[in-house]
Amino acid sequence: MSTSRDKIFQTLRRGLGRGPEDAAAQARVNQRISNPQRNLVPQRAQLPQPQQVDLFIEKATALTVTVDRVASANDVPHAIAEYLLQRNLPTTLRMAPHPDLQSLPWDSKPMLSVEIGHGRSKDLVSVTPAFAGIAETGTLMLHSGSQTATTLHFVPDNHIVVMRASQITGSMEDAFAKLRTSIGGVQHWPRSVNLVTGPSRTADIEGVPVLGAHGPR
């Protein structure tokens, strides 16, 4: 008996006019995956890397994202503690089990309580890495994995992302090219890749913008 997945693929094949063993179509797909071609990339993001960082911050802050630049990774716990204090938020963090985060000197801020694990509805603040920042739109590229649970990206009200300036790219195409190189082949693609541009928001009711509709505020 066919599984639900098989039925979905059969429906897609019928819509595309393909048979279950269309070798020519499969060859075209394999060629496209193994040799991806770039789309037309807007000129505004093709800048020297320091200017890409400035553009990312400009675009992100225009979307009500707050950005704090620190001199080194060792300064991250202090910056997070200040962020929580200024907004009267609890000092308990739900953090991704990523080595770049776990190696930070959290002991320098003993008032912070750092918990490792996936995001839960009771968590108000999460801390995760990002794979890349996209300067053109102020977008974060996040992906799932054993060290980056997607629930940390979308469940807590406050999402703190730690990212090096060197991770910022000019365009979405640049970010995906970087991801392909990093993962080492399509067989290692993460289950999900999420592009997040600013806090979750909606204006469905009477055109009034509301933050935090479907994720962090």
How many structural units, i.e. domains? 1
User: What percentage of residues falls in helices of 4 or more residues?
Assistant: 25-40%
Secondary-structure element pattern, one letter each: HHHHEHEEEEHEEHEEE
Q: How far apart are the first and last residues' alpha carbons, in Å?
A: 45 Å
* Oligomeric state as shown: single chain
Comma- or semicolon-separated keywords:
globular, 217 residues, 4-stranded mixed sheet, Rossmann fold, single chain, 7 helices, alpha/beta, 4-stranded parallel sheet
Briefly characterize the structure.
The chain has 217 residues and is of the alpha/beta class. The protein has a single domain (44-200), classed as NagB/RpiA/CoA transferase-like (Rossmann fold, 3-Layer(aba) Sandwich). It has helices spanning 4-16, 23-34, 49-61, 76-86, 99-102, 151-154, 172-183; strands spanning 92-95, 113-116, 125-129, 132-134, 139-143, 158-162, 168-169, 193-196, 201-202, 210-211.
